[in-house]
Amino acid sequence: MLHLTKTEKGKRTTSKGEASLIVAGELRDDWIDKNVYPCEERTVAAKILKRSRAFGKQRTEVIELRPRVG
Questions:
Q1: Which whole-number Å values give the CA distances from 42 to 3, 13, 28, 53, in the listed order?
Q2: Helices (H), 1-70
Q3: CB of 23 within 8 A of CB of 40?
Q4: How far apart are CA 37 and CA 15, in angstroms?
Q5: What is the pLDDT of residues 20-53, one digit of tens each?
Q6: What is the spatial distance between Cα 63 and Cα 61, in angstroms, rounded to a whole number?
Q7: What is the rounded radius of gyration, in angstroms, for the C-alpha atoms of the chain?
C-alpha cells in the first residue's frame, strides 16, 4: 500500500483508494487460489483503506513524540 502511493517524479501518483482496490484484488485472487472465498472486493478495499489511515495516524503520533535532536 505504501509502495503503491509513493510519489515519484514523472509518474502518476496512485491515490490511497485506488491502491486499496489493487491490494484487495490481489488478496482476493490469492484467497480464491487457496479455496477461501472472501467478501466482496469493495468491502476488503474499504477495510484496507481504514487500516491504512489508522496506521498513518499512529505513525504521525510516533514522529511527533520523538525528541528533536539539534
A1: 20, 21, 11, 16
A2: 16-33, 41-65
A3: no
A4: 27
A5: 888 888 888 888 888 877 777 888 888 888 888 8
A6: 5
A7: 16
Q: How far apart are CA 60 and CA 57, in angstroms?
A: 5
Mean pLDDT of 58-70: 68
Cell of residue 67, nine digits: 525528541
Phi, psi for 7 (deg, rounded to 5)? -90, 125
Give residue 38's region: left, alpha or beta (phi > 0; psi -120 to 50).
Answer: beta
Cα→Cα distances 18→45, 46, 49, 55, Å: 9, 11, 10, 17
Return the pLDDT at 64: 67
